[in-house]
Each structure stands twice: as C-alpha cells, then as structure tokens.
Amino acid sequence: MSRLPAQLPLGVGLRDDATFANFLPADNASLVAHLKHQLTPQGETYLYLWGQAGTGRSHLLQAACHAASDNDKRALYLPLADLGHFPPLMLEDIERLDLVAIDDLECVAGRKRWEEALFHAFNRLRDAGKCLVIAASASPRQVGVQLPDLASRLGWGVTYHVQPLDDGKRLEALQLRAKARGMQLPEDVARYILHRGPRELAELCRAMEVLDQASLSAQRKLTIPFVKQSLGW
Questions:
Q1: For the chain, is the Cβ count within 10 Å smaller at the N or the C terminus?
Q2: What CATH number should be reported for the domain whose range is 167-231?
Q3: By three-state DSSP, how is residue 101 classified?
C-alpha cells in the first residue's frame, strides 16, 4: 500500500499474493475488468460485490488496492471483520484517498454509529469524485443495513454477485497460485490436495504456503507422499 500522510487513516496491510495476477476470473471476468479500470476516467466510481465465503471477495479488494498503489494512487483496505469492533474513526478524511475498499460490511450492519459514519463517508467520497468498492456476504438489500439513507446509497452502483469456482476451475486456480510461487504442482497432486483439503480456496492457498516452505526447506518436489507428510493429511 502506498505511503499515506500521518493525518490520513491507516487500514490493514495487504497480502502480497492478493493480486489480480493470482486470481482466476472464470465467471467473474466482468467484475475483475471493472475493478481493474475503476480508477480510470471511464471507470465506475462505486462497485458493490457480494458472495459466499471463499469466493475471493477479500482477495479482489486487496488486488484493487495493490493495483492502485502500483499506479501511484492512494488506497485503503478496511476489513470490518477485523476493524468493526473499533469506533469508525478510520473513516474520517478518507475522501482524500483515491480508492477505499471496505470489506465485510455485514459485520457492522445494524450498528447505528457505524452506519451513520459509512453514510457520511459514502457522500464525501462521491462528492470528491473518489472511488469506493464494498464487499459483503449478501446483496445490498439483504445485508441487514438499518439506516434507510445508507441502504439506498448501497444500491447506487454496479453490483456483482461473485461466482464460486467449480472443481475444474478450483484446480486451475490452485495451479495458478503454485506457478506464482515458482512451484511445480503436478495435476495428480493438485487433485489430491483438492480432494483431501478444505473446501475454501483461501484455506487451500494457505496450505500451498506451507508446502512452499516445506519444499524449499527439504529441497523436495511436490508429490502426494510429501504433501501427506507436510500437511498431515
């Protein structure tokens, strides 16, 4: 994330691997294209994306922040699952940023102070012509926001339902992550990991981090026996 002046709010650090290059678009190609072009003159200033856990919502928001930083824009990632128990002070002055990515909106839905702060932040960003992307587990109408004015604002932009990957695409996504780490992941090993590992892609990617470290330490290629030994499956 690009360096911010001291008076501007600070979000949570971005995962290094949460980039567009590491995300398999599949049925979400239009969403990814909109996120990539959000900061251009032709881009949509406000996007709302929602979907079930493990579909890559958080990855995409962080990827948008990485892309903004790479283009000398100031971006802020705010995962409300981690920050929602604090007062919403980090929303002050955010209109001075180029892109604000708010994750896990459902975690503060129904909380008056947070909803009012989000409403005013939304208006300030819009008036300043800055970009906002919000992610949640449910659509704008179903996320549980109680403040009518905020509920109305949430439906103003382009809304995307993030589509999950089928098993074939999950295998492709796993191999993409392995390639990004410089690892060779044979198809039989990838299928074993998908069959024996957790369903959520984020958890599978964390398993790949473990395997990467284990492979480097042991100077071993990825095989099914080595995966069993390293992950305890």
A1: C
A2: 1.10.8.60
A3: strand
pLDDT digits (tens, 9 = 90+) for 40-66: 999 999 999 999 988 999 999 999 999
What is the torsion angle, in degrees rounded to the nearest 10, for the CA atoms of residue 178, residue 184, residue 188 and residue 191?
Answer: 0
Residue spans per domain, the chain: 20-161, 167-231
Using a cut of 0.90, tell me whether the model's pTM lies above it. no
* C-beta separation of 2 from 69 below 8 A: yes
| pLDDT tens sequence across 157-205 | 999 999 998 888 889 988 888 888 888 899 999 999 988 888 777 788 7
How many helices, marked H, and strands, marked E, lie in the chain? Answer: 9, 5
As a CATH number, domain 20-161 is: 3.40.50.300
CA distance 55 to 156: 23
